[in-house]
Design a protein that fits this description.
Structural class: mainly alpha
Largest sheet: 2 strands, antiparallel
Distance between the termini: 39 Å
Number of helices: 15
Number of strands: 2
Mean pLDDT: 91
Shape: globular
Strand order of the largest sheet: 1-2
Strand content: under 5%
Low-confidence stretches: none
Number of domains: 1
Helix content: 55-70%
Radius of gyration: 20 Å
Amino acid sequence: MLYSFILELIDQYTFLNVFKYLTFRTGLAMFTSMLVVFLIGTPFINFFSARQILDPIREDGPSDHIIKKIGTPTMGGVLILLGLFSGILLWGDLSNQYNWFLIFIVSSFGILGAYDDYRKIRFKNSSGISFKFKIISQIILAAIAIGMLNYFSDNQELTNLYFPFFKDLVINLGWFFIPFSVFIIVGSSNAVNLTDGLDGLATVPVILVAACFAFISYITGNIVFSEYLQITYIKGMGEVSVFCGSIIGACLGFLWFNAPPAKIFMGDTGSLALGGSLGAIGIITKHEIVLAITGGVFVLEAVSVIVQVLSFKLTGKRVFRMAPIHHHYEKKGWAESTVVIRFWIISIILAMIGLATLKLR
């Protein structure tokens, strides 16, 4: 909104031309989102604590969680979303179709996550809404968003699937693009949700993936850089970097309160929204496979749950001491901070590998 107002004044005040630069607005979005979360974080946490909006700890989880984490407020995703929307609505180009696509995803998945958190708080258990209801709702929301994007978008590359390391390997998915994209968004949303089990564990990987895609979206929307790196140019895609900047800023601000020992948890409100938005960004930038690489920690967490469930149903035996896999290492005796920091290190390595694929084609 503020960006649109500034555009009208550029002819009168030429120094405002700096706001046309995506890098400048991305930085502003990041700073604004972070500042908003910093400023409202403490009163937000105090309010939620006073209202007993507390996280119900898993009874089957690590035993020390019941001692250490009981009484910690949840639904911190509301704090993240307030920061994120501050950044994108102030500094984003609201005439850009990709921004509205991402706003719809992050809003709708955030509302679904908030409902899940509300059920957990109200009934004082960690179950929340049923798995079936959650998945069906996510599929419907993602299908609506992708269907509308596919209908209104003039992007001829939208239904293509590109493979890193191979500059000429492209598959046109046709109508299969819709179920494929729904799978990416829903899978990414739930993968981040599963990862969000320890203090700060999901927050830093989200920041790293968003940072990678801030760069990817910028070069994808720049005809010179995209040609140099042999990446498909997509008009208007650069604006997505402002959205990514808002994610980074909001999560950095949240990490201040979510770092061990956490004063507030992200909850499904934040994890479903952030995961869904990362999946959506991967789709529109046409870097779905790079998303799986940079977000490899999320993939690992999701796969560990799938393997655990299948193994138990088929053989009656568990592969891991507990799933998701971060709890497996806790059960092995690793300190929570050790698990978190080592997973952060893995995320940094995967982010660098993901970015390296841009040149290795």
